[in-house]
Design a protein that fits this description.
The structure is a single chain. With 289 residues, the chain is an alpha/beta fold. Helices cover 34% and strands 23% of the residues. It is built from 11 helices and 11 strands. The termini are far apart. Residues 1-7 have low confidence and may be disordered. Keywords: Metal-binding. InterPro entries: DUF34/NIF3, DUF34/NIF3_sf.
């Protein structure tokens, strides 16, 4: 194979970004979000890509150590404004680690949440939901796009059995899985939202879901939803998973989708998924522990 032919099989960062845009369009991101390219030269060749949930130091070290030229994270590093990326701060240190290691940083956050085949689609699929539609369809978008998903189980089951299914599906973290509701209550219609989802409670109720699977449930919204549920037979029940765990499930699927599209475009790129557990909690105390 000639050197010229070989070079055409390694995409530039700009060419990877074109494929990325096709899979997870930036237009699907929420207005408050910060997605897209954070660091990197568009003309830089990309031979290895690393996927992770969080752009933390351990992940940056892992990506650079693996020889990646691109780190793709779900969560943004610079979501809130900063005035310095000096290596005296942790965000600056991460930026320096990546740039000095020749590794670009790309974020797919709420655009990856809303896209077809995105975070909530993957969660719904893993839990065995059928006839899935968005909880909150995007404005002026396709019917399949939007935040959260709702669908039905092939067979109804008790809440305790469904919660066990969720527990077995998500990565193991210190916080485990928390459940609110009658353990013997039968569930059939299920709503899900990867990441923090208590902003979609109205949509969950409107969808007549028996149970809602999401993360980062704050006390007051969850308490108010449970109190209101007393008037509707106790539903929707709640199953709370870790923010990290609910979104990590998307990584292998996303990596495969990007790999497939790059290959169809004639490019040969090595793609890996981080094994780092970046859930912030290390242990939990419960009654009897």
């Amino acid at each position: 194979m000639s050197a010229q032919t070989q070079s055409t099989r390694t995409p530039t960062l700009a060419q990877v970004l074109e494929c990325f845009e096709e899979l997870w369009p930036a237009s699907l991101a929420e207005g408050w979000d910060a997605t897209g390219l954070v660091a990197g030269r568009p003309d830089q060749p990309v031979e290895r890509i690393h996927f992770a949930v969080d752009p933390v130091q351990d992940v940056a070290d892992e990506a650079v150590g693996a020889g990646a030229q691109l780190l793709v994270t779900h969560h943004p590093l610079l979501l809130r404004g900063v005035h310095s990326v000096a290596a005296t701060g942790y965000k600056g240190r991460i930026v320096h680690t990546l740039i000095e290691g020749g590794c670009a940083l790309l974020t797919a956050h709420t655009n990856a949440d809303s896209a077809v085949g995105g975070v909530s689609d993957v969660l719904a699929d893993i839990l065995g939901l059928q006839d899935v539609v968005p909880l909150a369809p995007v404005r002026d978008g396709l019917p399949e796009e939007g935040l959260g998903r709702v669908g039905t189980l092939e067979q109804s089951m008790p809440l305790s059995e469904f919660a066990a299914r969720v527990y077995g599906a998500v990565p193991a973290v210190a916080g485990g899985v928390r459940v609110a509701g009658d353990r013997d209550g039968i569930v059939h219609r299920v709503a899900v939202c990867g990441g923090a989802g208590d902003g979609l409670f109205d949509e969950v109720r409107a969808a007549a879901a028996d149970v809602y699977v999401t993360a980062d449930l704050r006390h007051h919204p969850a308490s108010e939803l449970r109190e209101a549920a007393r008037l509707t037979g106790g539903r929707p029940y709640l199953v709370e998973v870790s923010h990290f765990g609910s979104e990590w499930l998307w990584l292998p699927v996303a990596a495969q989708a990007l790999d497939t599209l790059l290959a169809e475009s004639g490019f040969d790129v090595e793609i890996a998924v981080s094994g780092q557990n970046t859930d912030p909690w290390d242990f939990v105390l419960t009654p009897g522990s």
